Amino acid sequence: MTARGRVTLGVLLDSLGPEMVRPLALPGGREPLIGTPVIYDPEEAMTGLEGAVLLATGRPSAEVLARAGEAGVAVVVVKPGTSDPETLAEAADAAGTALLAATPDLSWGQLYTLIDTLLAVVAPVEELGDVRAADLFALANQVAVRVGGAVAIEDLAMRVLAYSTVEGQRIDDLRREGILGRRVPEHPTNAEEYAAVLRAEDAVWSYEPREYCPRLGIAIRARGEALGTIWVLKAEKPLAADAEEVLAEAARAAAPHLARINLAADEARRRRDECLGGLLRGVGPVRELATSFGLLPEEPVVVVTVGPHSRTADAFAATHTGDLLRTAYAAYRMRAASGAVDGRAYAIVAADSVTPLLRRITAGVLARIPDRLGGQWRAGIGRVVPSVELAPASARQAEEALRALCGPYAQAEVGHHEELSAALFLMDVDAAVRARPSLYGEPLGVVAAHDARHGTHYVRSLCVWVAAHYDVPRAADTLSLHPNTLRYRLRKIGELIDLDDPDTRLVLALQLRLSGAAKPDG
User: Fold this and answer.
1) What is the pLDDT, as a whole number, of residue 440?
2) Cα 55 from Cα 96, distance rounded (Å)
3) Cβ 402 vs Cβ 478: under 8 Å
4) Where is the CdaR GGDEF-like domain (predicted)?
5) Where are the beta strands (DSSP E) in 321-421?
6) DSSP string spanning 143-178?
7) Which of 205, 290, 333, 373 registers the highest number of CB atoms within 10 A of its CB?
8) pLDDT tens-digit profile of 123-161?
């Protein structure tokens, strides 16, 4: 998985730019080919890292650089201030491994995503004028030089596929956030501005959002079908007089490339989701399917599913969420099969990753989804099962956990099935009695009817008393009453229903909870 690919270290440096990374040691120059990025803890064993871009967390030492060289690591990336840069550079030269320093405010997850995106989109495109662009990043840089402004190339989902890194060209916060997040940040004007560009045959100006720099945009098309857009940012200086013509050339050059990306990505995603669906249903050659995702057929696994809190996810939302799960888990070397099945995002994760880290990484994905898709999202985690063949059982539990998290009896964003048994029980009871009058009947109905007739607040008093575990002083404090006043109320309520009967108390507590009266604001 980390084998060397067709992207050189020089392309990596040029694509990310000096604002993201700077070289500390290049013993092999800019020509070595690099493989996939790996977020690495220096305390871990170095195996399976041939050609990797190692994102070294913690305080890496010269010994770590030596081990990286022995393991065939192509590049090690560190953060400034974690170790002495001169010592690390000498060790990198001795080990034959390139050493880069990442900007301190760039998270490891963001850097992983940027490198992963670069590896995914670098491929030949058509010629731009007299110069052949080696990839979309090179195309963006060529356009930026010719028109005099920073360039971004995006697909129809507003994902940033490539961007220019010409030194001295200004970018604003909107562009910076788009690069770091791989997608243009949400803004109320997005739909109108992009629609205007996609309707037009030629380049058009966009002046929204007003707080950012103006942009000249053009649609990328193939056979009349829109595939994406190219945007150039106008800073202090005006763009070149022929900027619109240059963008038109660039759109023609980029079209075959985006078509290949879309076709390959759609086909690969479709096949991957079909395989994931087979594992979740226990259908097909399960052992072979598990191996294709890097999972061992006989190892314990757990299923995670993600969905919106109060609406049904569409196919695009599920697919995008599945991609976010895949990237997030891979960034931390969690072995997982991730994707979208039946309009919902799923991941089957190797159980050696079932630690508090799994919950934190999943919560991190949830935090990113609203900016891209809107709304609130939840993630349910099933129970660990002994093998992939039993993944369907964990999937059903993950779905139940998600159902509980989206219901009225659980407040967390991420939850394990075993944590949510009470919420699931309440939901099942609620569903069983909702269509029957018993929910609003005795004993609660008697007290509620008394409140309605006499203007008393007995239901509220019972709610607080039950929530305080029948502790009168504590409940009285919450109600701002003297304890004796609450005791008097309870005696009066006891004349209506038998509060000393344990079954009455049990049913009353359930009725209060199911009716919503027992909520903190009830």
Assistant:
1) 57
2) 17
3) no
4) 286-404
5) 336-341, 344-350, 377-381, 414-416
6) HHHHHTS-EEEEETT-BEEEE---TT----HHHHHH
7) 290
8) 444 434 433 344 788 889 999 999 999 999 998 878 888
144: burial class by Cβ within 10 Å (0-12, 13-18, 19+)? Answer: buried
* Phi, psi dihedral angles at 445 (to 5 degrees): -60, -35
pLDDT tens-digit readout, 267-313: 667 778 888 999 999 988 988 889 888 898 889 999 999 988 776 66
**243-281 and 136-147 are packed helices; what angle lies between their axes, rounded to 10 degrees?**
160
Element (H, E) at 94: helix 85-95
Contact between residue 61 and residue 89 where contact means Cβ atoms under 8 Å apart: no
- Token duo for residue 448: 């509620």
Task: Check if the beta carbon of residue 72 is closer than 8 Å to that of residue 55.
Answer: no
Residue keyed to tokens 């010269």: 62
Asked whether 79 and 55 are in contact (CB, 8 A), the reply is: no
CB neighbour class for 260 (10 Å; exposed up to 12, middle 13-18, buried from 19): middle
Tokens 């407040």 appear where? 411
Tokens describing residue 66? 């030596």
